[in-house]
Design goal:
The protein has about 425 residues and is α+β, with helices and mostly antiparallel strands. Helices cover about 30% and strands about 25% of the residues. The chain has 12 helices and 19 strands. The protein is globular and about 55 Å long.
């Protein structure tokens, strides 16, 4: 990559790709550089279906089978080291592809808030049947358990997400007045009212009854309010959705013995399953005055969960979760349960954990990042929860991990990044 400020100005609108570079270091150590400037579907997955029928050894992008129907596969890139286990290559390629395809289809259905599917009890069904006991898939039940343990109330902002999400489909700024609380006091008041219910466990709460049985409790007062306001979505994982899906996909693969790879979503959630001691790398970016800089590269060994939170778009696919106003302001999907407003405490916050999945890591980071300003002590406090962080301020990369390896610090005559541990 050419490391010049001019090139970096093009980063918010690149052709979105997932780039993997392999190189040898020392005694056969391979450095796998994963640039998570992910992935609009047809570009990121350009390897072609034919490779599945004539598989090659080494790192491959595993694609979802076309026969799988609608899936979440276009939001993820799955890289796998075929042949690493010594299995018969053709069989391994077919098996891992089939398994991944099935998991992507199932995840797509389970976390869907708009459509129901035959034989599946998903978020849409739960929202349409408040105060009723339903039986859900183990994956969805585990997701609710994770949310419950965290105490985070973001998932109950369903009414806000249902309306606010339309903001990202506006083609003219005049349309934003119907969805943007920063431009309309009426919208702000509406979101604040929705958020007040979302924060209150006595108004809405997911009750876990064991054996896969759940009940979305909604109070009579909230039901009456929902009826007046035309609300039929109480529960929505919002920006956290792909964190849970990344964990589910990783768990399915690991449970079936496929761990020689990594899964990354276009919106910043990555699960490295690889426990072979190989060195991976994650690019760290920073945005200053509208320019995006490749500030450094974080080297690590898996398994690892990585959550990359940022306040700006870098690909066409990001149009689903960012809106740039003519003024330069950017609206994001990071909504605060306190008032329903989008907030980003920093341009970038990279969080990672060797002990927690993407969902747990994201939930722990949410209280720090979805805020008016970044609390450095709160960031440092995440270490006690097994989550390490890196963020940039005034060209300084602040890190909470004393064993962190940062390389390729961005340096020019006018711009220089340095690292400081705190």
């Amino acid at each position: 990559m050419r490391r010049t400020a001019k090139d970096n100005r093009d980063l918010p609108h690149p052709r979105p790709v997932e780039k993997i570079e392999l190189s040898e270091r020392g005694a056969g150590l391979r450095l796998i550089v994963v640039l998570v400037l992910i992935a609009a579907a047809g570009v990121a997955f350009a390897a072609g279906v034919n490779e599945l029928f004539t598989p090659q050894t080494g790192w491959q992008t595993i694609q979802v089978n076309a026969s799988a129907g609608p899936t979440c596969g276009d939001e993820f890139v799955f890289l796998y080291d075929l042949g690493s286990s010594g299995a018969v290559l053709r069989a391994e390629s077919r098996e891992v592809t089939d398994l991944y395809s099935q998991a992507c289809r199932k995840a797509f259905q389970l976390f869907h808030t708009v459509e129901s599917f035959e034989g599946v009890t998903n978020l849409r069904d739960i929202n349409l049947h408040p105060n009723e006991t339903l039986t859900v898939d183990e994956a969805l039940y585990r997701a609710f358990e994770t949310v419950q343990r965290s105490g985070d109330r973001t998932v109950y902002l369903g009414p806000v997400y249902a309306r606010y999400g339309d903001l990202f489909h506006c083609t003219d700024e005049s349309q934003l007045l119907d969805f943007d609380p920063y431009l309309s006091n009426e919208v702000r008041e509406s979101y604040a009212a929705d958020a007040a219910f979302a924060r209150d466990p006595q108004a809405v709460d997911m009750r876990l009854l064991g054996n896969g049985q759940v009940c979305l409790y909604v109070s009579e007062e909230y039901l009456a309010y929902a009826g007046r306001e035309g609300i039929d979505t109480f529960l929505d994982f919002g920006w956290l959705k792909n964190a849970f899906i990344a964990d589910y996909l990783a768990d399915v693969l690991a449970e079936n013995g496929y761990t020689s790879g990594s899964i990354s979503s276009y919106d910043g959630f990555s699960r490295c399953l690889d426990g072979r001691g190989m060195t991976y790398a994650q690019n760290i970016y920073d945005r200053v005055d509208g320019v995006i800089y490749p500030a450094a590269v974080m080297e690590y060994a898996g398994p690892m969960s990585i959550v990359s939170l940022r306040s700006y778009p870098i690909s066409e696919q990001d149009g689903e979760r960012f809106y740039r106003l003519n003024s330069g302001e950017i609206r994001t999907m990071y909504l605060d349960p306190a008032d329903g407003l989008c907030k980003s405490a920093a341009q970038d916050l990279l969080c990672y954990s060797q002990t927690a999945g993407c969902a747990e890591t994201a939930l722990r980071a949410a209280g720090v990042y979805v805020a008016e300003a970044l609390d450095a002590q709160a960031v440092k406090g995440l270490v006690d929860e097994g989550v390490y962080c890196v963020y940039s301020e005034d060209r300084v990369l602040y890190a909470t991990d004393p064993e962190l390896t940062l390389t390729e610090l961005y340096q020019t005559d006018s711009v220089a990044y340095r690292v400081e541990l705190y």
